[in-house]
Amino acid sequence: MNHETEIITGWKPPRYIITGEQGEGKTTLLLRILAELTKQNVNIGGIAAPGYFKDGIRSGFDVLDVRSGTSEKLCTTNPTENSLLYGRYYFRPEGILFGTDALNRSFLQEKVDLLVIDEVGKFELSGKVWGESIDLIMKNPYLPMIWTVRRPFVEEITKKWPMSRQNVIAVGSEDHEQIIHDMMADIQRYRSETTL
Question: Total structural domains in the chain?
């Protein structure tokens, strides 16, 4: 699919970045926003990475294909067969492949109004986990996007993958209704700027 021929002149894709510290609720806020947008018939693609806890300590993350609703274990603090150690987490190759496939399908094959990447951080900056998929997406960004990014990495990530339209949303300071309103306006503009 050649996206360049689909876009009518004048469209500048927006990127929304939900930011906060680790464990502050970025994914929770993201999923809340996605649920509201889904009610308004927005076609959403990409990935979310909800964490889970054991004995009150974060012990791993799943990767959720937001389009299909299916998920796979992404990483855990305990090693598994063929797992890759990044930071304190052991990443499962099957989880990375699952998330990469979901991202690539959303960008290259499926007709979606919004692309989700949760989360983008130090591993992606060094080309790991979702790094290669983001490089591909950002060669020709055309979709409205929403990313989650830990606060310390926002500046570096926006320099590495710049976009002309960007809205940074800090967890705890957000106005949910305004975010949904702004995103719907962008999505409607995107729909009107692309050929059917």
Answer: 1
